[in-house]
Each structure stands twice: as structure tokens, then as C-alpha cells.
Design brief:
It is a single chain. This protein is α/β, with parallel strands linked by helices. It has one domain: Metallo-beta-lactamase, Chain A. The protein has 10 helices and 14 strands. A 7-stranded mixed beta sheet has the order 1-2-3-4-5-6-9. Strands 10-11-12-13-14 form a 5-stranded mixed beta sheet, with no helix packed on it. It has a two-stranded antiparallel sheet with strand order 7-8. β13, α6 and β14 form a beta-alpha-beta unit. It is globular.
């Protein structure tokens, strides 16, 4: 019963926030990462943009009401045709514009599990998500890796073991030395871990442990949320996630309830840096249900 009530409060809070969102007030901010790669920030997941003679490729697309603003922001960068869309995972703040862009003729690509999740109604700790229309679905999917040879670069997307969800991909531009992590990495904010749909602390740590050795001090990282980052930021995130995860796991093994785990303040030394917009208590809940016997 306590678990149901806790989730209910999270769900109602999420729905209320969504209803209150004024997309008219959202501004799309563009940051040039390299000569051919840009990052767009607005409301939802950060968008990667590859520009050049082969056309424009988008990585994620935020919410449907923002599509016109996103396209307008891209048009300020380049007048080349927008041809391709890659989804790093299935959550609506990264795929909400799929239907609009699918209607515009973009080729949508994602991991197999992204299409599977979008095909049917889904449950998450943040509420229920309805199935997407056919036009919003990826038309090309892959199992492990997919490579684009585009705009003078080689862009490879690779699937990581279940981390934020069970369909996460990390994208790397080889020549530009740029990585887009989707929500496997979020810069200086506690992440949402979708434990109902395969996410886990252990998976995120493993993904970071695999990613970090491939980076150097010049690697630019477009996070799922937060500011443009680098290797040191990814290392800090990995260490925070691992530390909080270990603390919560130890308490779960002692049979502690969610309320008792929260009371132990396993995030207390991280809250000042990482505690906005999501609080430590909210993050602990996601971690707890990933470790607890009640995990779905």
C-alpha cells in the first residue's frame, strides 16, 4: 500500500507538471559543439544536430508542440534538408516530435526496443504512456550498432545494456569527437531511472564504465539533460550514481522500507550539486525500486 501511494504521488505530480507546461514560452537555444555538430536545448531531452552537405540529422526531438520551434532553430543553422531522425530511447521528452517529423518525411531510426515500447501502451513510475501512431515509429531498427556515414563524419550508435531504459543508445561522432548519451548520462541533476522498463543503477554504471575509457579530455558530450559536458563531468556522474546505488542497496539488504531509506539520507553529500530539478528523495525512490523485491 505504501508503495502504491508513493508512486501515486509521483504520477499525479508528473501529470500536473505536464498539464501546467506552457510550451509557448519555451525557447530553443542552440550551441555549436563543432563545425558540423550542434546541441539544441528547450524543454525535454537535448537534441543533437549534424549538419553538412548530406543534409541534417537530428538526435531526439523533445515534445510535439515544440517541433516548429525546433525546425526554426535548425533553419538558423543550415538550410540543408532535414532528412534523418535518431531516437536515443523511447521516452516522450525525446520522441514526442516523431509524428510531426515522420509526416515531414524524416527517416526515423532507433534500437529494436524503442519501437517495441512505442508500439503499445507503457507503464512507468511517472505514469502511463499511450502507444504512438504508426507515423511516429522508427522505420529502421537495429540490435547492437548502426553506423551513418554523413556530413564528412562517421556516426555510430550503439545499444548499451539496460541502463536508463532497456532501449538506450549512445551516439558517437568519430571525427568530431562528440558523444550524445541520451538519458544514460544527465549533467549535474539526479536522473530518472525507468526501472519498470529495464532501467537500473547497475546498468548506468556499466554504461559509464564502458564509455569513459573511450573519451579524452577534448571529447564533447551532449547529455540527455543539462549543459554541454566533458569527460570529467561523466566521471563525476558515474561516481555519484555508483555511490548512491551502493548505499541504497545496503539498506535494502537490511530490509529497510522506502521511508527508512530516505530517512538515512543516502544522497546528502550530493544534494547541493545534483539536487535540482529532481530532489534526492525522488532519486532515492527510483533507485530503491530498482533494488527492492518489489521491482517490476
Amino acid at each position: 500500500m505504501k508503495r502504491s501511494l508513493a508512486i501515486a504521488f509521483v504520477v499525479f505530480g508528473f501529470i500536473a507538471a505536464a498539464l501546467a507546461q506552457n510550451f509557448d514560452a519555451v525557447q530553443i537555444r542552440a550551441t555549436q559543439v563543432t563545425s558540423n555538430v550542434w546541441m539544441l536545448e528547450g524543454e525535454g531531452g537535448n537534441i543533437g544536430v549534424s549538419v553538412g552537405e548530406d543534409g541534417i540529422l537530428l538526435i531526439d526531438d523533445q515534445f510535439a508542440p515544440l517541433t516548429e520551434k525546433i525546425v526554426a532553430a535548425v533553419r538558423k543553422i543550415s538550410d540543408k534538408p532535414i532528412r534523418y531522425l535518431f531516437n536515443t530511447h523511447w521516452h516522450g521528452d525525446h520522441t514526442g516530435g516523431n509524428a510531426n517529423l515522420g509526416k515531414a518525411g524524416l527517416l526515423i531510426v532507433a534500437h529494436d526496443n524503442v519501437r517495441t515500447r512505442l508500439l503499445t501502451d507503457q507503464a512507468t513510475l511517472l505514469g502511463k504512456v499511450p502507444a504512438s501512431p504508426k507515423i511516429a515509429l522508427p522505420v529502421i531498427t537495429f540490435d547492437n550498432t548502426v553506423t551513418y556515414h554523413i556530413n564528412g563524419d562517421t556516426m555510430t550508435a550503439y545499444h548499451v545494456a539496460p541502463a536508463h531504459t532497456d532501449g538506450d543508445s549512445i551516439v558517437r561522432f568519430r571525427n568530431a569527437n562528440v558523444v550524445h548519451t541520451g538519458d544514460v548520462f544527465a549533467a549535474y541533476r539526479y536522473p530518472y531511472i525507468d526501472t519498470i522498463n529495464g532501467g537500473s543503477v547497475q546498468g548506468i554504471v556499466k554504461a559509464m564504465d564502458d564509455l569513459i575509457p573511450t573519451m579524452d579530455d577534448n571529447t564533447k558530450v551532449i547529455p540527455g539533460h543539462g549543459r554541454l559536458s566533458g569527460k570529467k563531468d561523466v566521471i563525476a556522474y558515474r561516481n555519484m550514481i555508483a555511490t548512491v546505488g551502493e548505499r541504497v542497496e545496503a539498506l535494502v539488504k537490511q530490509g529497510k522500507t522506502l521511508e527508512e531509506v530516505r530517512a538515512a539520507k543516502p544522497t546528502k553529500d550530493f544534494d547541493e550539486l545534483w539536487g535540482k530539478p529532481r530532489s534526492g528523495d525522488q532519486f532515492v525512490e527510483f533507485v530503491y525500486y530498482g533494488y527492492s523485491p518489489y521491482k517490476k
